[in-house]
Amino acid sequence: MKALVPVKRVIDYNVKPRVKADGSGVDLANVKMSMNPFDEIAVEEAVRLKEAGQIDEIVVVSIGPAKAQETLRAALAMGADSALLIETEEAIEPLAVAKMLKAVSGEVEPGLIILGKQAIDDDSNQTGQMLAGLMNLPQGTFASKVELEGDHVRVTREVDGGLETVRLSTPAIITTDLRLNEPRYASLPNIMKAKKKPLEIKTPADYGVDIAPRLKTLNVSEPPVRQAGVKVADVDELIARLKAMGVA
Amino acid sequence: MKTLVYVAHDNVHLGDATLATVTAASKLGEVHLLVAGAGCGAVAEAASRIAGIGKVHVADDAACEHQLAENIAPLIAGLMTDHDAVLFPATTTGKNIAPRVAALLDVMQISDILSVEGERTFTRPIYAGNAIATVESSDAKLVITVRGTAFDKAEAEGGAAEIAAVASTDDAGKSSFVSAELAKSERPELTSAKIIVSGGRALKDSATFENIVMPLADKLGAGVGASRAAVDAGYVPNDYQVGQTGKIVAPEVYIAIGISGAIQHLAGMKDSKTIIAINKDEDAPIFQVADIGLVADLYQAVPELTAAL
Ligand SMILES: Cc1cc2nc3c(=O)[nH]c(=O)nc-3n(C[C@H](O)[C@H](O)[C@H](O)COP(=O)(O)OP(=O)(O)OC[C@H]3O[C@@H](n4cnc5c(N)ncnc54)[C@H](O)[C@@H]3O)c2cc1C
Ligand SMILES: Nc1ncnc2c1ncn2[C@@H]1O[C@H](COP(=O)(O)O)[C@@H](O)[C@H]1O
Question: Where is the Electron transfer flavoprotein alpha/beta-subunit N-terminal domain (chain B) (predicted)?
């Protein structure tokens, strides 16, 4: 069984994004970019399934700028076998991403497609579910545990009230939550090896997918800034303030 | 515009998250509700009493019992021939189903809206809430998830809407529910609590978290939250997590104990009315958003505070 893992290049999670003064977006010039943290978890999960002998081959795919090759190389260094970049400088919405992933899946024929639950730039939390809808496949979203059992997969999901377990027929779509695993750091030899692994480059036009955005961003602004308040000297003063607020 | 709101429920109780979603929908037009479940008659009754709504559609069927997206999405896509917009509470259930509906309708979903600016224009947070985007949809139908803390709750009583049965689609046969491990707690639920006490990595282990954070929460009648670090380290279960990827909360009072204030944590709580932080590091970023800060060792300060209340 093959696994397909879509990975997105996004602003590094440690960087505090700055809104552009003209309200056109977030300033990404000279900002550190990395693989979306949830996608690292997705790659790690696929690699562990391969190490356990349950997956034969891992294909990673990214839709994004030429620089996303770095993101794909990082995934190859973690243990993926081959990579595909669908190159575009446009920002692509989840619906169009899902359509391209559907087309890629038609070629790769994966038994599992493992995505991140959300990209930390657009915070959409849509692509996996959309892909599942487009392909009419079952979905195990927000996974904290994935167990392959022959032609089925058991997925434990993080839900508002706690945990929920579902059983899906394969092929299936999984989206990762933070506690699924802790991604490895690629070793130097593996980083060197990754440079020789196949990385194919295509364009959205090769897949005939309409990437015209459906949402128009009219403006991007800073959220209201909270002002720091006061520091109290001790617990007594804190209690006095709580009392004044009617809390205690 | 005719809207459909997906009712949050567990087949027995109507989920609170529904009410804020009704408010958001009412800004677009007429509001209809959908209750999809099994043996969910009481939920439909409760839904019909929400003030200001037009009609409650009920799909009461075994295929809907666990609200599996594979079974619910086609049902909703079918109902969209008669509705212009569908709005889901941004709960894990809503987030699971909504994009699948959007894909079936070939529309781009608008996630986690904070406000309704016009018929097709909304604001939503991006980059962990470090920026707010105003977006306009060009799609024929709208599929939306609603951030509960951003809208007032509709009145739960006062309405007397008609309840109409709708046929569910068949079980898609691709997925099945196995089990759920749901936390049972006497404490207020995080997303509706008036006061929240949250603990971070500094709490060391689950016994310490229990001994330090819980007594304070009990004294205040507060809900209990946690940072991701505390959840990852196993001090408390995952449903306690507050933040970009956990729960979004906005209580009257949020008390952060031994939490540094990473942007991902702030994303989940910075709309709280009053933020109180207890941290031994006076430079901890949490103090930049705290209304009241106490620089102290939590192991002294928190028991002292609890005892004095
Ligand atoms: C993709 C992604 C998503 C994330 N989502 C979330 C999320 O939803 N929610 C979330 O919370 N985090 C999230 N994180 C993690 C986040 O980046 C931080 O790592 C996390 O919030 C830190 O938790 P903390 O404040 O408890 O721990 P730390 O940052 O380690 O802070 C501990 C604090 O305790 C203080 N302290 C220590 N001892 C004492 C003492 N005796 N008395 C008083 N104070 C003391 C220290 O001064 C310090 O400030 C996410 C990260 C990623 C990459
Ligand atoms: N441009 C992209 N290229 C590759 N994968 C993507 C892209 N956009 C989204 N994804 C995948 O979809 C997941 C959810 O993204 P989103 O729906 O945008 O929050 C991500 O974690 C990725 O796994």
Answer: 3-181
